[in-house]
Amino acid sequence: MPCIAIFRTGGIGDVILSTVAINIINELVPEAELHWFGRQPTLDLILAGFPQVRTHAFNPGASYRQNIDVVRNASEHFNLIIDLQRSARTMIIGAVCARQFHCGYTTWNKFSIWRSLFVMQSFLTRRRVMTRHSALPRRHEAMARCITGALKQRQWLKQEGPLREFRPTIPVHSQGKKNAIAINLGVLYTSKELPFDKWLAIIYHIIQKQCCSELYFLGDARKHEDAAQLIRHLRGDVQAVNYCGKTTLSEAAQLLASCKCTLTNDSALSHLSESVGTPVIVFFGPTHEQFGYRPFLEQSRSISMPLSCRPCTKGGNTSCHFGDFKCFQELDLQPALDHLDCLAE
In this structure, is residue 48 part of a structural domain? Predict the structure, then answer.
């Protein structure tokens, strides 16, 4: 029976997209014993969605030797190590462990150089022209090609012919869809937040068009007061629940699975929503959907301005070069509202 190790210690959104690896291995090599090496809180999400996967914690403050020992103690033997983190640390740990286990080691192209070139181009062109970047492959699609290639190389595939498209899918226990919409206010960097007045305009539209009977506000504890202020503007038959700072990732996944759609910043919960089958409307400001993070469900949409100064940085953790945040302040919400009406029908 093949024994496979997966390394993924990055941010929550990256880990959610990386669950495509579990789906591929479960379908193509169902007899494989799968081990996931990562960090909290994402290990709990992996364990809740995939109880058959054995999870192990890498300690970011530990030495290389200590983390190598984590891999050694996880199993007597690995046949393949798949490094989806591809950092200097995981590559060293993976190379050492692959040599000791006499097993295969594979990693994937994170397109970091191309993303850096996108940022450099945006900085140099400023706002003189409107540019359209060539879209990088979606991150889960690039990972899927890496993983299926590694499985083919070891002749483990049971399926003949072309493979279907694999997507990150996290199983959840859901009671079915409700007449509810999720609004995710949370985001890692404040520069990636849709302004409060834009969210307020969306709230008024939901009330006017009667898009739903329930609203679920999600995000970390810092967004609890913002959600409370938005809820004060609700009236009529729309009921709202402020879940900001009150849910685990697994609980958030269950809530999202019960909704008709999710309105969200460019954040991890946009990926979580799609992974449980709920379409999203994602608002991109200083970041860029062509980096590989654009939505993948047919009913999902990304909303942004075609400014040549985007993206400011690879992760959006910067102040606006021009000080006006035009990418958000002048963002036209109408395409998002029109699509929301379609999803709410």
Answer: yes
- Give 107's strand partners: 83
Three-point CA angle 37, 268, 320, nearest 5°: 125
Asked if residue 118 belongs to a domain, the reply is no
What CATH number is associated with residue 229?
A: 3.40.50.2000
With beta carbons less than 8 A apart as the criterion, state whether 271 and 16 touch.
yes
Answer yes or no: is 168 within a domain: no
The answer as to whether 39 is a domain residue is yes
Domain that holds residue 21: 3-111+139-153
- Stated pTM of the model: 0.92
pLDDT of the chain, 345 residues: tens digit per residue: 899 999 999 889 999 999 999 999 999 999 999 999 999 889 999 999 999 999 999 998 899 999 999 999 999 899 999 999 999 999 999 999 999 999 999 998 888 888 888 888 888 877 766 666 667 889 999 999 999 989 988 888 766 666 788 999 999 887 788 999 999 999 988 889 999 999 999 999 999 998 999 999 999 999 999 999 999 988 777 899 999 999 999 999 999 999 999 999 999 999 999 999 999 999 999 888 888 889 999 999 999 998 888 888 877 777 788 888 898 999 999 999 999 999 988
As given in the structure block, the two tokens for residue 125 are 């062109």
**DSSP string computed for 170-231:** ---------SEEEEE---SSGGGSPPHHHHHHHHHHHHHHT--SEEEEE--GGGHHHHHHHH
Sign of CA dihedral 329, 335, 339, 340: positive
Q: How many CA atoms lie within 13 A of 70 on its CB side?
A: 23
Domain count across the chain: 2
Give the C-alpha separation, 341 to 202, whole Å: 11
Burial of residue 308, with CB atoms counted within 10 A of its CB: 0-12 exposed, 13-18 middle, 19 or more buried? middle
